[in-house]
Amino acid sequence: MSASGAAAVALTTGARVNPLVSLLIWRLRQAGHAPGLILSTAPLPGLARLTKARRLGWRALQRRWSGPAGGAPAAADPAPIDAYARRRGYPSPWQPLPAVAVGAAVVRVSDLNGPDAVAALGRAGVQVVVNGGGGLFRPALLAAAPAGILNVHMGSLPRVRGMNALEWSLLLGVAPTATLHFVDAGIDTGDIIARQLLPVKEGDDIAALRGRFVPVAVELVAAHLAAVVAGRAPRQPQKNRDGRQYFALHPRLRRIAAARLSAMAGP
What is the domain extent for residue 83? Predict the structure, then answer.
């Protein structure tokens, strides 16, 4: 516990530049739950390209450097993220995390579920972990956070679980939604805490919605973290039959999903 009575909070990341995690650091600090630890699986500077090359292959990496891959997931539009940061008086969330993690220890681990990560949570007295990326969570890490691990999913749970949830939502005619939920041993199957619709505006593309998701996710965590720490957060159990797990889209399906955005647009 901190002097203010707030339980210790940790964030995870798989990248050195992570606007979601940067915004969470500042927003949760204002809410009285300043993160004390960031578990990072990001490669050390200079090794990132080599790691990507080994994972993707050099030719795929060259295509990625030379331009957008046809059908690759759209990157988040930075405009909604930057607008949120300006409104709240935050610095740029696009800086490397060591520069913005004031008051929080950044601990690099090779595996979120390895003994080093679990030990770091124990040393810091962490009660709750907020997922900002870095990998899936296995039983050892789930057990290391007594108040739970939180995730904000870019889809309406339980209807749309798994990968590319935003695009699958568009294909299925499900309103784009952010869902705050507890992480359990399944894929997006933990108890639901809250949902928030993502507004769709005229002229939006998928990148715009991805960018709009980030501040919505930050506010969902900030609004409910105190209740999670106190053990009073609402918990809506999911039933497997109420949804299904989706996987990566074929590029053709991704293009169809993007085309369907215009039909959902409001003023």
Answer: 8-264
